[in-house]
Amino acid sequence: MATSSSNTNKADHSKNPPLTLRSSDGKELKIFRIVAQQSSTIMNLLDLEEESNTDVIPVSEVDGSTLEKLIELMNNHTEKSFNYLGVKERKKFYNDFFANWKILDVLNFGLVANYLGVQVIFDEACQKMADMIKSKSVEWVRKVFEIKNDFTPEEEEDLKKENKWAYERGDLDDGDDAI
Amino acid sequence: MKRSLSGGESSSAVSGDTENEASKKIKQGGEELLKETEAVLLDENLLFEILQRIDDGSTLAKAACVSRLWKRTAQDERLWELICTKHHHRSPIQLRAVVSALGGFRSLYSSHLWPLLKPVSSSPAPIAVSAWPYHPPPLAPARSKPRWGKDEVNLSLSLLSIKYFEKMSFNNRSKSGN
After folding, report:
1. Contacts for A100 with CB less than 8 Å, ≥ 6 apart
2. What is the pTM of this model?
3. CB-CB: which of A68, A105, A163 is closest to B64?
4. Is A39 helix (H, G, I), strand (E, B) or coil?
5. Has the ipTM of the complex gone over 0.95?
């Protein structure tokens, strides 16, 4: 049921049936065309699909639950009220969306947004990660990102000395935000 | 490459209830591989995007201490230029040329901007940053967000160039005995 893609106006949903995306683990999710426009990748995949006349667009790089969350966010973006949000409200919106997420999940989400070409969501995921590491200790960052410390003890000493000024204020309580 | 929402040992609460049996199997099988690949996923470019959005210098400096990849990325001059000039944008190309010649933005920040931005201690001693001695001591705790503008950057630039020229003339003197 491939609809012609020539109409670019904001068509009402009754005329344009939603697209179906299939995730890597076989989940099928619906997304309206107007919402899908935020993703350059989906638009490209759509062009390919129209030639072969199938209903479902495979998104093989993304698993079902991430895709579902992403579509949810993209739906929010297309709501009229969203565009009228002020800076603070937008900030609060994304904070609420990402509340209690583990940082690796945010990372994964950002990578998926990047893959699907949804720049706004990619930016917000990066911003969230930047906010999360602010004022946290080096050990905390290594822990939550699962990064191996590949410095020699001497290198680490030198670095600490060079950046001594940065440690003056001390770190926020690392206690919460376990992996 | 299949990616799943759960990174590391524990499945996150977000994906927990929406999994079905098939995806669980895939996840368990691939989790070992995932652990390795997720660390690799954070490459220099993505890391740059994240560090670009940090707005305070101490976090950026500490980021350089995390690992070699992070050090390479966090010491990128472009990031430090953003931090130094974020409250004041004026002829960035000229500024960049001068600062690069004098040792770079990272050096500018750590030696000169940072000391200006240090939070006010609780003692009633006069505050170095505020110009007027008659400025009433702040009643609220002085942990407000530091802001710096043209004046602070210019002052730091002056100090940086003085330091640079001092080094230069010292070298000259020892050579030619002028």
Report:
1. B13
2. 0.69
3. A163
4. coil
5. no
